Each structure stands twice: as C-alpha cells, then as structure tokens.
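Tokens help. Consider this.
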Amino acid sequence: MADEARLMLRNVRLGSSRGSLFVFGDRLELATDDGDRRIPITDIERVANRRSIRGSRLLIAIRGGQVIEVRRLSASDTATAHRVILAIARAAH
C-alpha cells in the first residue's frame, strides 16, 4: 500500500466477528474472516466511546444508519482510537 495506517487495532471484536480495524487518512478498513470492507472517512457521522464493568467499546456511526461497534479494547486504547478517528474525520469534513 502506498500509504500507512495512522491507527491499527488488531484482534478486536467488530460487531460479532473477530478482526482488525485500520484507519487511514481517507478511509477505514475493516478486515474480518467474512471479508474486507472499506468505508470513506467522510461517511463517518459520529464517534463515541463507552466504558462499563465489562470493558470499553468504541462506536462509529456511519452514513446510512449503520453503527460499527469495536470491543476488546483497553480503556487507553479506546480513548486513543476515539481521538485519532475524530481528528481525521474532522479534517476531512
């Protein structure tokens, strides 16, 4: 690939599947056993993080009413991912 990912989250839960999330300057890439998916960064509408007793999770709302839930992250990884994705999405809008 010509560009490097600004953020890599490996061995996380993406919804009900195990996979990886890669954040580039212009897109998100979700890699799971079911296949790969590319989402333009401009399709991101909202990014939120939630913490509970069971752990932290990152919620990414994209155009079309879909929500990507990323679980199995530490509290610090969730905060870092939230900050990075939000900064990239703001710059793209």
Remarks:
- The chain has a mean pLDDT of 92.
- Strands lie at 7-14, 17-23, 27-32, 35-40, 44-52, 55-62, 66-73.
- The CA atoms of residues 19 and 32 lie 4 Å apart.
- The first strand starts at residue 7 and ends at 14.
